[in-house]
Amino acid sequence: MTSWSQEERSLIEIVSSSPEETASLGERVAGRLHRGSVIALRGGLGSGKTCFAKGIARGLGIGENITSPTYTIVCEYPAPVPLYHIDAYRLTGDEDFENTGAAELLGGEGIAVIEWSERIPRSLPPGALSVSIEITGAESRVIRISGAAQTLKEIEEDFVL
Ligand SMILES: Nc1ncnc2c1ncn2[C@@H]1O[C@H](COP(=O)(O)OP(=O)(O)O)[C@@H](O)[C@H]1O
Ligand SMILES: [Mg+2]
Description:
By secondary structure, the chain is α/β, with parallel strands linked by helices. The chain has helices spanning 19-30, 49-59, 94-100, 149-160; strands at 9-16, 38-42, 74-77, 83-87, 111-115, 129-135, 141-148. A hairpin with a 5-residue loop joins β3 (74-77) and β4. Residues 16-19, 21-22, 43, 45-51, 68, 115, 139-141 line the site of adenosine-5'-diphosphate.
């Protein structure tokens, strides 16, 4: 085991051609997560952040259809490893996030998936898996995942299988 600070980081780039492809990428990534994992999602409105988060939920065995938590900041989904779906869109920044109490969930018992994570840069742990989605066409997206080199290697290996 290596500590976050010493971990080597790398980046992978994946092209998605449909919402289902984005969700299934999320589902695959979920298989490589563990308690305390933080997934920092970035990308404009309608890029597919919630779609990716739905895939993660599916991968964690959450049957419920997850929706965007825009009005609640955080939605908690119980599962053997619970999911905290966080939306930072309405927050003014890191301090605001601290004040909601949701910051305490990061690195805890569950997995945190954060939409609009760029709004709370200082709250993100250095080991967070960063997922940035770029709209490149009506149904096409370029998804860039950066994080611990070992985790990314595992995610890449899943494609070969
Ligand atoms: N390849 C794709 N991946 C994800 N979403 C896509 C893709 N192509 C089209 N879409 C559409 O883009 C929208 C993404 O919505 P959503 O996941 O709610 O975005 P966000 O949470 O980033 O605002 C959906 O309407 C979805 O059908
Ligand atoms: Mg959303």
